Amino acid sequence: MSKDKLQDSQSAQQNGKRPIPLETLPEPSTDHDDLIAVEAEVVPSGPKRSSNRWLRVGAVGILLAVGLGGITFFRRQTVVPQSKSPTVEQNLPTILPVETVTVERVSSYSISQSYTGIVEAQRTSELSFEQSGLLLSLAAKEGDQVAQNAVIGRLDTRQLQAQRQGLIAQKQQAQATLTELQNGPRQETIAATRALLTQEQARLRELQAGPRVENIDAARSRVRDLEEQLELARLQTQRRRDLYAEGAISREQF
């Protein structure tokens, strides 16, 4: 028995453990000579035991923290969807339409590139109205495409329309005057001149019948003057008519 104690003590010292003394039991009173062996429990030393205890406490704390975190995460996952009142459509998977492309062998490919800049026309021209006035509407703005002869703006033409009507009236009056001149002098003027000529001719005949020669000569001279005045009036009228037709004189001068 002492030998076994010595071996256990040596093995405990080699393992860094404190040996525990063992007590031997008294010999049994029975007839058998068997010995009852008592197992020796090796108890770790003080510092080693305390470090193991702290490790166990730390492991338990970590397990508790992980468990609490998992419970909190699970509760959030279950509570938040209920507050949003999910529908059946929200739980369904989202289906995205796709376009299929057939793979083909090609010998070349093109690369498109985009750049940032300002597009300027090669040729520009400034447009304006022939006359100034009040702008009523503008059908196009900068950058719009317009076709040829398209109306892009309108002016207030009420004043121009009034001027146009006045010019039309003047044209009609000038046309009437031209027609009258083309038809010859007025019949009233010709009739008055003829009446005056007839009166003078009658006076001439009367004087020719009388005895006074000077009166006859005076009457003849007066008749010749009237005839010359009539011819001069005809020539002047014809000349003015020709000048007006050529545009050399105005209607007032005519």
Automatic annotation (TrEMBL):
The entry's keywords: Coiled coil, Membrane, Transmembrane, Transmembrane helix
Gene Ontology MF term list: efflux transmembrane transporter activity
The keyword Membrane belongs to this UniProt entry's keyword annotation: yes
Record-annotated membrane-spanning stretches: 54-74
Any GO CC annotation of this UniProt entry: efflux pump complex
Annotated region (Disordered), positions in chain: 1-30
Domain of life: Bacteria
Coiled-coil annotated residue ranges, if any: 157-184
Protein name as catalogued: Biotin-lipoyl like family protein
